[in-house]
Specification:
242 residues, alpha/beta, single chain
């Protein structure tokens, strides 16, 4: 198989439609509170999610607190009082989570792509910033459970993307060298830059891009390029030793 033996994937935004599920969940949550889920409210929800999740990723707050902070940012916009009791905030967030989970779905073609790569003999890994319980639950609910040889959540391995150690841990658990792994993700910073910094190849996917290549085409093209590069290197070494 040349110099490529494994393919690693990000989950949210790459194989799993987090953005769509979050928008649907936020809409149902806001409307359940008797407010209107305007475009401004949904943008504020998305912004709060990103900002507070990054605070959690950097270790500034715990996972439950980042959820509370998201509510503290958005509830005033819809005229809803912000509970001072953390337990009441947690109960409110559970209402959002119920709607969010109901909208969970994998991107079309995700399962088929993983099956195709498995059939071609590649080892498959998942590397995702998130908690073990929630990310595993996503895989089960959208039918991707069991598709991977290795599942690395940042909570379990103790390091976050884009840190190089997260990617090298994935490679170690896949039993491959980082240079023998292609990583696929939707974030330039967290996925592409992080993976390349650890010595992996990387490909960026963008499901929202109009007229862009589909994920399967991007991944198979990157694999073909890597295998060609490996074959050329082998021929070069052989001719050099002749």
């Amino acid at each position: 198989m040349g110099s490529l033996r494994a393919v690693g994937f990000d989950l949210d935004g790459t194989l799993f439609d987090h953005r769509g599920a979050a928008a649907a969940g936020a809409t149902a949550f806001v409307e359940g509170l008797g407010a209107v889920a305007t475009a401004d409210v949904l943008r504020a929800w998305s912004t709060a999610e990103h900002e507070q999740f990054e605070r959690w990723r950097r270790g500034e707050i715990d996972f439950r607190e980042q959820r509370r902070e998201r509510l503290r940012a958005v509830l005033p916009m819809i005229g809803h009082a912000v509970p001072t009791d953390p337990g009441r905030l947690d109960a409110l967030f559970e209402d959002y989570l119920h709607a969010y989970r109901a909208a969970w779905t994998a991107f079309p073609g995700s399962a088929a792509l993983l099956r195709e790569l498995r059939a071609r003999g590649f080892r498959l890994g998942l590397l995702t910033n998130g908690t073990e319980e929630q990310q595993r639950d996503k895989l089960v609910r959208v039918g991707l459970d069991g598709a991977f040889d290795v599942v690395c959540t940042s909570e379990r391995i103790g390091v976050q993307k884009p840190g190089a150690r997260a990617f090298t841990t994935l490679a170690e658990e896949l039993d491959v060298d980082p240079s023998d792994c292609l990583f696929v993700g939707d974030s330039v910073e967290h996925d592409v830059v992080g993976a390349r910094g650890a010595g992996m190849r990387a490909v960026l996917v963008d499901h929202a891009a109009a007229g862009g290549a589909d994920v399967r085409s991007l991944v198979t093209s990157a694999i073909a390029a890597a295998l060609t590069e490996g074959s050329d290197g082998d021929r070069h070494r052989l001719s050099g030793n002749a």
